[in-house]
Amino acid sequence: MSAQLNQVTTQIGTDPDMQETKEWLDALEAVLENEGPERAHYLMERMVDLARRRGAQIPFSSTTAYVNTIPTKQEAHCPGNLEYEERLRSWMRWNAMAMVVKANRADGDLGGHLSSFASLANMLGIGFNHFWHAPTADHGGDLLYIQGHSSPGVYARAFLEGRLTEEQMLNFRKEVDGKGLSSYPHPKLMPDFWQFPTVSMGLGPHMAIYQARFLKYLHARGIAKTDNRKIWAFCGDGEMDEPESLGAIGLAARDMLDNLVIVVNCNLQRLDGPVRGNTKIIQELEGEFRGAGWNVVKVIWGPGWDALLAQDKEGILQRVMMETVDGEYQNYKAKDGAYVRKHFFGKHPKLLEMVANMTDDDIWRLTRGGHDPHKIYAAFKIAQEHKGQPTVLLVKTIKGYGMGKSGEARNTAHQTKKLDDEAIREMRDRFSLPIPDDKLADIPFFKPADDAPEMVYLHERRKALGGYLPQRRQKSEETLPVPGLDAFKNVLEATPEGREISTTQAFVRVISTLLKDPNLGQRVVPILVDESRTFGMEGLFRQIGIYNPKGQLYEPVDKDQVMYYREDKAGQILQEGINEAGGMSSWIAAATSYSTNDRIMIPFYTFYSMFGFQRIGDQVWASADMRARGFLMGGTAGRTTLNGEGLQHEDGHSHIFAATIPTCMPYDPTFSHEVAVIIQDGLRRMIANQEDVFYYITIMNENYAQPGIKPGQEEGILKGMYKLQEGPADAKLRVQLIGCGTILRESIFAAELLANDWGVAADVWSAPSLTLVARDGQDAERWNMVNPSKEQRVPYVTSLMQDTDGPIVATTDYMRAFAEQIRAFMPKGRTYKVLGTDGFGRSDSRAKLREFFEVNRYYVTVAALKSLADEGKIDVSVVEQAIAKYGIDANKPNPVTQ
């Protein structure tokens, strides 16, 4: 401790009174020895406070010296058999290498990563052997967010455990035939193995924080006992540059998530080069996390450094450690002991004296803390036991540890996947693998007999912790009854004459009905991002409360109102503030709770559709990978429904994004009865049937009369399209008008114009899901292609349209590509015209916006007439008359370009 204090005095300049300084330091040393660090910390804080109040300018620092946080004498000793663990770890290193190198010798394009696991093998070994619980009757199980690029090492461990076969190992990254292993942690592809996807970079730490919060939420609400469970998230130091990685650390501290441990593997390198060549990533991250309120534990130096630091009475070694930048540290481990002696210890004569009796090999063996099992065990134990704060472990390692000249500490390490024979031989020798020279060229996997003492130890350790990890529950053991459609009667019926509501209001009624359901009410998780009042959902504040682990420590300013803002320790709403990524991470935690907690939850995340998918697209794909089940509600959807807001508030493309995700069921309902049918069927599929799908449902804030459901419409609503109304049967001319969302109503009005002004009958089709219609068509098309001699399937939309007459006009509030999805499945020879809202948004009234984007009733009418003219059924002059009648400016610029 005195060495650290000496370092501080060295950093702030020449000491004008060394004797006085020594007296102060000796006094502090006495307090540390006799009363402990807590008392010393208290006294120092009081002195700093007094100095600041008297006007002293004392700069704030959230970092500590560049040494291990845990003093050597306070390190908990690892109780395991370290000889066995070291051998097991060496075998895993070898098998991970063999798996990747074999795959790339057979097919050089498969890729794979060796260096990440090589750098954190010690950490994973300590965790699996001593800390991480599998689910049992008494323990819900710990949740692991494994650093994505380290998957080969996890497979190598599972191979030794007998959970993976050699055939699977030989099929690393070869998944098409169903025998392979996924490149990264992918629950979609390995549903009983991986718990969470952690690639793309940054998603792991962000999702882990909200997962930890969700466990606290479940416990506070009495739904599941989670107080003995931990979330462990492993990530790389380069990964911390992703905004998501640090974006939620304030929430973790604010909510006191002491069930969360983030481990940053600080090997100082990213793909291209050093993470912080000119500074120190560990110090930077320490400042970020400590400043946010986390418990920070640094594991920097291995045990060989302890004796040197104990000799460092003047703080010279610590000063040099602090002054040396990461680019230099990387260089040291890419060279040899002689280089380290010259360029590190050579920075000060007394340091050279300190290592004078050490050989170059001795210096080379001065390793980093992340490669010492005792240092790691001590840090993990503190993280496991710490209360009141989340913990981050900043662990310094060597990228590609054990890979020798082929990759250890080199800029190329991240991409290294092909080792030559000499590198393989060096690795065999370094880790003492019992593989003869004549077998090296085959790079055989190594697995000792089941009764080998190391193998017995491996299984005993996992048995003591409840079983093997990672493992994933595919289905919940819970069975919850789903209410029938008639439970939503209040939105299925037509609105009374003179009454108008929006589909957002219909959704709120559905939520209210579910909250009252005796079986499902407690499982509903409303998630909002500071838009509750926008969507008319503020009534839920008082009804079910907003979750806050501290409750409500103040009287809300609107307490005298019926719908006042109420926070509660057992609140049901997850209110994220202006934070779409946070809302999505909460939704993911709830939407996968059936797997992680054996508790089926029903999350409804409601957001501005424009600020939803385009901000959280990566997370939506991650949720699909995790087989999430729940509802995403895109509010104020469509390019023209949100009048007055302007360019970046108007969504014309979220349904294009949603269409790309296979397990997403996207719907754009127009009417309240459609909303009810879709949500009820979603509950049936996701809860009763436990299907791995989720729903994206867009809802609007435009009020209009609701027609109510008619018998037989349910099937068409769910399939994505049904006939809403039929034009006069005796008309000579007929067209088919397709619409969805608010623009369906423009098609309805266009049908009236066509009939009244031009004598043309129009059948109107509601298309709640053009995407599902398109998927059905694509499926039929594919089946027909590969089964040419069998009876050919007819796509659903083709069957709807083939017995109708006239051109088909589809109009939506989204880009034309949305409705273009079904063009290929229109009956042969039929005209298919698409109107949409391509281009930038505008601020104006709904009527003006629909005129601007050319999707209003007049443009639908003109499009229908032009299609009839193109088919020779009317004269083109009729189209010109309509353009003049409706005041359409033929010279108006294309809105796409404006």
TrEMBL record:
Reaction catalysis annotation: N(6)-[(R)-lipoyl]-L-lysyl-[protein] + pyruvate + H(+) = N(6)-[(R)-S(8)-acetyldihydrolipoyl]-L-lysyl-[protein] + CO2
Residue intervals of the Transketolase-like C-terminal domain: 720-855
PANTHER family according to UniProt: PYRUVATE DEHYDROGENASE E1 COMPONENT (PTHR43825:SF3)
Organism: Janthinobacterium kumbetense
Domain of life: Bacteria
Any one GO molecular function term: pyruvate dehydrogenase (acetyl-transferring) activity
UniProt-listed SUPFAM superfamilies: Thiamin diphosphate-binding fold (THDP-binding), TK C-terminal domain-like
Protein known as: Pyruvate dehydrogenase E1 component
Keyword Oxidoreductase: yes
Record-annotated Pyruvate dehydrogenase E1 component middle domain positions: 495-707
Cross-referenced InterPro entries: PDC_E1_N, PDH/Transketolase, PDH_E1, PDH_E1_M, THDP-binding, Transketo_C/PFOR_II, Transketolase-like_C_2, Transketolase_N
Ligase keyword on record: no
EC number: 1.2.4.1
Gene: aceE
Function: Component of the pyruvate dehydrogenase (PDH) complex, that catalyzes the overall conversion of pyruvate to acetyl-CoA and CO(2).
Cofactor requirements of the protein: thiamine diphosphate
